[in-house]
Amino acid sequence: MKRNTFLALVFVLLVFSTLSMANIEFKSSIYQAIPDSLAYSAAAFYDGKIYLIGGLDIAGSVVSSVYVYSNGSWYLGPSLPFPLMSAGAVVCDGNLYVVGGENSSSIFGGILEFTGNGWKIITNSMPYPVYGAIVFSYNNKIYVIGGYDSNGIIPSPPVTYIQVYDIKTNTWEIIGNAPKPLGYSAYYFNGSALFVVGGYVAVGEASDLAYIYYPENNSWSSLSPLPGTLVGGALGYYENYLFLVGGLYDVNGLPQQGEILFYYNGTWRNAGIMEEQATMFSASVEIGNTLIILGGYGQSGLQTNAMQAVSIYLPPPKPQIVSVISGNETITVKWYDINASGYYLTYWSNYTNKVTINVGNVTSYTLKGLQDGETYYIQITPYNSIGKGTPSEVVSATPYSVPNPPFIKVKIGNKNATLSWIDTFNGGFPIEGYYLFVNGKGMNLGNVTSYVLTNLTAGELYTIGIIAYNKFGNSSIATTSFVAVAKTNLTVTITKEITGFLLSWNSTFNATYKLIVSHQNKVLVNVTTTNTSYFVKAPFGIYNVSLEAINLAGVTKYSFTLIYYIPPLPPNVTWAISLTTIYLNWTKSIGAEYYLIYDNGKLIANTSALNYAFNLSLGKNEIEVYAANNYYMSAPYIISDVTNHIVIINSTEILVTVPQVTVGNAENTDVPQQSTSTDLKSAIIVVVVFVLALLMILVIVKERNDKYW
After folding, report:
1. Which part of the chain is the Fibronectin type-III domain (predicted)?
2. pLDDT band at residue 707 under the 50/70/90 scheme
């Protein structure tokens, strides 16, 4: 053991100070010493014990030790697999984890899980390995905010990343950034909000800023800044009060250690008392209203082995009354326990003065000897050593000997409703029966506690009333209302667009909808919504669609197969002829996946390109170009206004007929069709080419020349 180890045998209060301000009281004390003098350790309260993990010892060595505090004494727990300092310790989903940290050679970019008798690495792939970061757990995920990603050889500012580790999927994700770089900040997470105070925001630059981070929606807000800058402090939170302990606190260039501040009415206030041993870069855990400070650097600049406690005491909060039950000349009041030292009960009526009774540390009390039929008003006020707390709301009750009205429950079904009720107080005598009223019409049910209403009209409001009676008479009426419902009907429409398809639906009643869209057994969309439309961005294909409408009456399911293709537009073709080769070019047609080319009614090409060339046959050629996909085919391209062109070879005229291309109107069809036009054949490229072989031309010319010779 290191210095001051004799304190390990002592668990007594050495120094005790108090402050009372604005009905807030602080107490500072020193408890049993830690077995070693450490700074930059991590700490967590787990399984009813305090775990002090790793750190930097007084010799300047990073340690792997784990000390456990239980039943008033420290003992050595299972050591880490390697030394770590400036790590984070957190309890998540019932397990203890150590996150990040550094040692003399590297930064640990992972998470260690405590197995009970040792530690195991569950991930080693933190996107940005850091130390000195903010670490907390929320929704079965571990959050790591800020910290340093440099091992200290070259000074660098802390980072702003919000890194999140999902324990269930064993994956990391960076979900955003903090407003400022944050390193060695004081922080506390209360289960829904993270409070962050001070810390390094640049190399050697401490901050006076205070923030609140909400992991539910990944947002930040600001609190009033500190009067000075702070780094390496510890933050506590109790009953909506923040209190700050220790750290290096600098006000106007005057460094201070051991300060205790608290946040009250939007302002940071000095508590007026100090840590018994001023510390910074210590570990801390909060248990109830007490912040336990473990180790850290003392005023001497060396590590300390002090275990300190700073407690906050407040007047008790406002109690909540659970029930008020009237009886024969009695009223029984029950309320929730708020850890007060005791309670005052004050009651009065319109005919009596207020009477206050110190009922002690109880959570129920019965007033007796009251006047039946007279209304009494009751209020509960808690108290503790600080003083009286906030009084409860005023409740009223009238004692009598008939039953109290029953408590009604309604379970709504498909055009039916099941009514059930329970007694709150029978007046001191057995209940003999109940009257049921439905929209004003009554019936005596006898001594039953449930009834089923059937053949209800969906959308109609039903008002239910139940009266209990005993031999002394009827209770007042208990009422409730509900709107009858039925399973909804669905009507679905589909709008196909270029980038996907829009599913729209109508239902006969309001509902929550669950939409599942899958393709080849792969789920592409799985959403639950109250909207009545959803656009699915997807490529052409065949999809399975399931839509469920869910309301109180049940579930209506609508499933179908959607063939998502659109009819392509006809291609816009241009062409040219070189000798016996024709060259076709066209622009991309909306909705097309490929193009079909026919010559004289015969398919000669299936291509996804935007051009094609081939040799013409002798004689007349009829060419058709279609845009197509796996389900539709467009109309062919239309040619009109054919003109003749003349080619002259050796003074011999050879007539070549070449049609000129113009764009006409075309209609899309689902399947390929032969043209039935009687003019230029709708959507046909007609090429009439009289091709003569060059040798034959030369022979004819030669014969004619020989004749004249």
Report:
1. 315-405
2. very low
As given in the structure block, the two tokens for residue 41 are 């350790």
pLDDT single digits (tens) 13-38: 333 334 444 578 899 999 889 999 99
Instruction: Give Cα 646 distance to the centre of its chain.
Output: 76
Count of beta carbons in the 10 Å neighbourhood of residue 188: 22
Residue type, 160: T
Q: Are 593 and 630 in contact (CB under 8 A)?
A: yes
User: What does pTM read for this prediction?
Assistant: 0.53
Same-domain pairing of 130 and 261 = yes
* CATH code for the domain of 513: 2.60.40.10
Binned at pLDDT 50, 70 and 90, residue 652 comes out as: very low
Read off the pLDDT band of 663 (50, 70, 90): very low
DSSP element (H, E) containing 654: strand 652-659
Contact criterion met (CB below 8 Å) for 216 and 192? yes
Alpha helices in 209-366 (DSSP H): none
What is the spatial distance between Cα 500 and Cα 494, in angstroms, rounded to a whole number? Answer: 11
Mean pLDDT, residues 422-436 taken together: 85
**Rounded mean pLDDT of 293-299?**
95
| Contact (Cβ atoms closer than 8 angstroms) between residue 153 and residue 143 | no
Total Cβ atoms within 10 A of residue 537: 10
Alpha carbon of 301 to those of 232, 253, 518, 612: distances in Å? 13, 19, 64, 83
Short-list 557, 553, 508, 555, CA closest to 414: 553
Phi, psi of 706 (to 5 degrees): -60, -35
Kindly state whether residues 542 and 673 are assigned to the same domain: no
The helix (H) or strand (E) run that includes residue 121 is strand 119-123
- pLDDT, the chain, mean: 85
Between CA 628 and CA 612 the distance in angstroms is 16
User: Count of residues for the chain?
Assistant: 709
Residue 616 clears pLDDT 70, i.e. is over it? yes
pLDDT for residue 638: 54
Rounded (to 5) percent helix, strand, coil in the chain: 5, 55, 45
| Residue range(s) defining the domain that contains residue 618 | 573-695
Q: Is 3 exposed, middle or buried (0-12, 13-18, 19+ CB in 10 A)?
A: middle
Closest among 416, 565, 542, 535 to 482, alpha carbons compared: 416
* For the chain, percent of residues with pLDDT exceeding 70: 86
